[in-house]
Amino acid sequence: MTSLQDDYMSRINRFMKLELIEVKEASSKNSNIVSIQREETENLMKRISDSDFVVLLDLKGDMIDSVILSKRIEQWSAREMVFVIGGSWGVSVDIQKRADFTLKLSALTLPHLLARVVLLEQIYRSFKIIHNQEYHK
User: Fold this and answer.
1) How far apart are the C-alpha atoms of 119 and 57, rounded to whole Å?
2) Side-chain half-sphere exposure of 102, counting CA atoms within 13 A
3) How far is CA 27 from CA 15, 24, 30, 38, 112, in A?
4) Do the Cβ atoms of 76 and 55 come closer than 8 Å?
5) Which of 9, 81, 94, 122 holds its CA 20 to 30 A away from the CA of 3?
6) How many CA atoms lie less than 13 Å away from 74 in the CB half-sphere?
7) Of the candidates 54, 55, 52, the residue with the CA atom closest to the CA atom of residue 64
8) The pLDDT value given to residue 137
9) How do residues 31-76 score in pLDDT, each as one tens digit?
10) CATH topology (fold) of 2-19+50-130
11) Residue ranges of the domains in the chain?
12) What are phi and psi of 79, to 5 degrees?
């Protein structure tokens, strides 16, 4: 799966600079979900600037098709885009409020690595659409 991730990242880098940043999971031994989310939010917010366009991947987000996503990415690309995949317990209300757009990849719950690969493929597909380049369906 990581080789597929690396392949899509390489493809995307032809269109724009892409950096994958993994933020440390909560180290809290506490089983309190709010504490875990608070710690992970602090780690995430350190990596997000005020000028970034933040797209949160969340089951409560909007499901859109690839063409619409490509149009949105074209609009959003005037700013640094940050795509956030939350931790096992989801994200805090603070991250939800900070998000400029909330995207639902699927009604299914996906493991993080699989969600990342699906997201990368869709970002790549978006750039192919934006640049009127053929890409398989």
Assistant:
1) 9
2) 14
3) 36, 8, 9, 11, 18
4) yes
5) 81
6) 14
7) 55
8) 61
9) 788 888 888 888 899 999 999 999 999 989 999 999 999 999 999 9
10) Alpha/beta knot (3.40.1280)
11) 2-19+50-130
12) -120, 165
